[in-house]
Amino acid sequence: MKYILPLVFLFISVGNYAQNITVSGLTTDNQLQPIESVVVMAKNQENEVLGYSYSNEKGFYKIEFELGNMQSFLLEVSSLGYAVIERKINIDDKTTTYNINFKMEEKAEYLREVVVEAHQKIKVNADTTFIRVSQYTTKTEQTVEDVLKRLPGIEVLPDGSIKAHGKPIENLLVEGENILDKNYKILSKNLDARTLEEVQILDNYEENPIFKSLSNSEKVAINLKLKSDFKNIWFGNVSAGYGLENRYQSALTLGLLKKRIKLLEFSNINNTGNKASNLLQNENIVIDLSQMFQKIEKKPFSIFSIDEQEENVFNSRSIFNTSMLHSLGLSSKVNDKLAVRGSASFISDKTEQDYQAITQYNTGNNNTTFSEISNYENKNRIGSTELELKYAPNTKNYIVNTATYNRNPHNTINGIMLGNVAVSQENDVFSETFYNHLEHTHLLTNNTALYNYLYVGYGVSQENAEISHPLLNDLLETDNVEPFFQDVNNKFNYYGLQSTMLTKRNKWENQLKFHAHFENENASSRLFTETENSLDGYMNNLKIDNNFLSVSEALKFKLKQNNYVKGSLSFTQNWFNNDDYLLKNASFTFRQKLKNIGVIRLSYNYKEDLPKAQMLLSDFALNSYQDFVSGTNKITKLKNSIFSFNYSLYNDVKGFSINSSLLHTIAHSGYAPNAYTNSNFIFNGLMPYAGGENTLANASLTNYFSKLKIATKWETDQSFIQSPFSVNESEVTNLKNYSGNYAFSASSYFKKWFNFSGGVSYRFSSSKVEGNLNSFETKKAFLGFNFKISESLKATVNNEYYILNNENYAFLNATINYEPKKSRWSGTLYFNNLLNEEEYLVQQINSFTSYEKRIRLMPAYVLFNIKYRF
Length: 870
Fold this sequence. Notes:
By secondary structure, the chain is mainly beta. It has 5 helices and 49 strands.
């Protein structure tokens, strides 16, 4: 550490003496009411930011900055919902303090506004798109997610994650506040649709005010504006429902939105197939040295994978569950300098699923096939909490500290019949993680900022598996037919420091980063029986010390508008146990915006990394009752080149968008699967090998036909993967996987008594090894209707039809909602799987494994739900 602090202090510079200017005043609306959170910036003649401030709840702002020898400066005042004001201030040599008030006008008078139709209004101002949700909904939407699905420029993916203008959103804000952070799906799937007034897409979103003044962000966020009826008072709803087949659901939403405090609480319990754990963010974040600003959170790994047997095909049709969710989010401005955000969630899922499956390992001439009948039960409990403090003592400092704790006990039981052989497997897993992120941004000069990021992480996981399998006894030659046990442990702790100097000079932007990381990790596995404490070849005990120092430089040259050329280079000296490794990373990006045509982005990344701990477990461990996994004791650098192309055009006003991307990855060095199979088991290992390519491509075209009041969407996804592998000590051969998906959909926006949405899709997947081809195809058609029977009575009907390898499946779901006008009460009838399909065929190809699984579906039922809003 003695070398770290001197390097950090090298970033700090001392500015020259200059004239100090203080500007203060009030920001008010036309009725002279104060406006909070107005951004007031002081700029010089070259449009460089000299200083900035935010107005408080009384509308007061104050800026202090150094002017140098200039005789004037520019004040720029902006806030969401109001027109930008610019005012030039001439300097009096004897005056250093100025009092300047601003009366702000609503944007409607100044916006670059285009109206598609009188009832479909979208406004675009600078980086913000304002969408009036009432003009796009059918009044049958129940949640915020239902509303977002119908808005232009926004896409809700099947797992509930959200994209805006083609990018995953950074945050889902409520009245400008980030309440649930990455777990925003809890909010989008539970907040009542009736509360929404407006949705805002925030391009070039940046939460850090100092970064915002120095660098153009490419992140995007969504801000939800609620109706005035739901502000400054307690609001929410409570609902309960019961139906046939003992189906039930109950929910509570509670909210309070004031200037200084915002609180949202969501609770839900159901056995209708909606798993609570699906609402949590489960992205496994890794250290990526090509990213300049990235929170580092490592997760413990697991080996035994019974829980991966579960299929979330339809949720409400295929999952037999009992789920519970409690989530509380709070955001508060303690004073003008300090803000607090906290959240806590508790989730419990108990799921069951029965299925019949055929698994085939396509290894060329020696294919291995397993057939099984299985019943599965999973108990998953997750507790998480997060506390974030934001402190801005002045305009030159911004401090954020975020602490997160997660705890996850997990039990899975699986009973299987392999012909006349009975197999049982059970796995108890416990994991917990803790992370703390301390970020300090300091504005050194008007054009230079120093960002220091200190992080600490801890994680542990413990697996205790029990497997009863007679054929496993034969394989391992145990004396008695007795169960096997496997213990897996993974524990790590790490800490590190990043210091980044961000400098902006005219058209140049420079980021110089120093990164020190210190980590140790233990990983072990042991397969044993009651009579044998360990089995040779099935025990791992790995200890890793992983420390590195990294220096990286990124240069960005701004062309006209927001076009730029950017390049970065990093060198990392890594001490991995007793060996030294020098890792190199480089990237190049070109972005060009063509007027009224769209944005083109080209990039190239070269990445070097070291294998993770799980890849270095050299002995075998049970991955499931039928396969083993192992890593390697040979450490090889993972070297990859990544080429990407993206073209996008978004015109939300006209409801037109194009988004396409192409990603091609070349593996220069790394590992290839090295498998051995027999009639009952497969052993998966790794061997160092160079080679492998994959290409991912997607494209979508959305168009709104104003005369027809119909929006259409064409889309396709393509995946080509070529990877080397070896089976049964044969020569390395290439595995070729392909997946292609084509889809068309259309939705209406009639202001009449009905609307519809429908479409078709086709998917083809194949795996080819040494001339042997295995393939699946899926065809789907769907058609849904929304009916407005009266002002109080509305209904929806959804039809879906599938063809999978010449097998046909049809599904019919419906809802009837009665909501009397001026009443707080409403009632809804839910009709699920009315055609009473009993099973569904799931098909999947992954690497050289393909399987077909027939899962049991929830029988038809009707559920009546009553809701009270307050």
